[in-house]
Amino acid sequence: MSTWSQLSEELRRWSEDGRRAGLWWRDDDAKKNGPKLARLISLAETSRVPLAVAVIPGQVQDDLGLAFAGVPELAVLVHGLRHENLAPSGEKKSEFGPYRPVAEMLDDVAVAFETMMVLFPKLAHPVFVPPWNRIAPELVARLPLARLRGFSQFGPRAAKNPVEGLIEVNCHMDLIDWRGKKGFVGEELALSALISHLRSRRTGSVDAGEATGILSHHDVMDDKSWLFLAELFDRTKGSEVAHWLTMNEIFNLPK
How many Å apart are CA 22 and CA 43, to the nearest integer? Predict the structure, then answer.
């Protein structure tokens, strides 16, 4: 059973090694303002943890920008184009899977990024987050052609730079139980995923340089999910070992 004390122990081992554990926070599927997004923004502001919001360009409503105004260290990432399942029947959901022509998908990516730059010129970052965390490898290799410099999905990365000019930094702990009732995955499983990636980085079984990513979905989160996230921030924000990173720090973007 994974507990908060085990997380503290893992961070203590990082400290003994003279290292800091980089962490980052990504929230997916933003498209409109409302109470749930307001709760997300409020948590980011009160916790002072940098927030990266993956926004769906083709579903953005006019009031979304109001929610982002004045939020410190908030970054907007490109979350597909329409977040539309275009996979054949019987296949796992994807918008940019291996079932579509690469040129067609690259055009969609370019449109998505240009849309974000128009809607959120001061907040949009050239970082692509594929819906459902699924993307054809052939498209990844071409993302820099659409002026994308960063890429984020789920699970330990195989390489920092899948292709020249592109940095991959993923998430490793998802708060939502997608295979169950889509509620909180539970404190034990959430901490287990978090501790596991931190330990794997420390011991070198995965890329030690990849920041450990926390993935939330504000639109479907229940109270238990919010409480866990708030407690995680409270326990780590003042730590000298755990370091919550901004998007500029993660993807080496100019300040």
Answer: 20
| Secondary element (H or E) of residue 68 | helix 64-68
Beta-carbon contacts of 8 under 8 Å, excluding residues fewer than 6 positions away, are 235
Inter-residue contact 13 to 24 (CB < 8 Å): no
Q: Do the beta carbons of residue 247 and residue 125 sit within 8 Å? A: yes
β-partners of residue 141 are: none
Tell me if 64 sits within 8 A of 34, measured CB to CB.
no
Instruction: Decide: helix, strand or coil at residue 27.
Output: strand
Q: What is the CA radius of gyration of the chain?
A: 18
Q: At what angle do helices 35-47 and 223-236 cross, to 10 degrees?
A: 10
Number of helices (H) and strands (E), helices first, in the chain?
8, 9
pTM above 0.90, yes or no: yes
> How many CB atoms neighbour CB 199 within 10 A?
16
For every one of its 255 residues, what pLDDT tens digit does the chain have, with 9 covering 90 and above? 689 999 999 999 999 999 999 999 999 999 999 999 999 999 999 999 999 999 999 999 989 999 999 999 999 999 999 999 999 999 999 999 999 999 999 999 999 999 999 999 999 999 999 999 999 999 999 999 999 999 999 999 999 999 999 999 999 999 999 988 889 999 999 999 999 999 999 999 999 999 999 999 999 999 999 999 999 999 998 889 999 999 999 998 765
Q: Are 228 and 184 in contact (CB under 8 A)?
A: yes
Q: Which of 24, 44, 20 minimizes the C-alpha distance to 249?
A: 24
Cβ–Cβ < 8 Å for 133, 153: yes
Tell me the C-alpha distance between 130 and 85, whole Å.
11
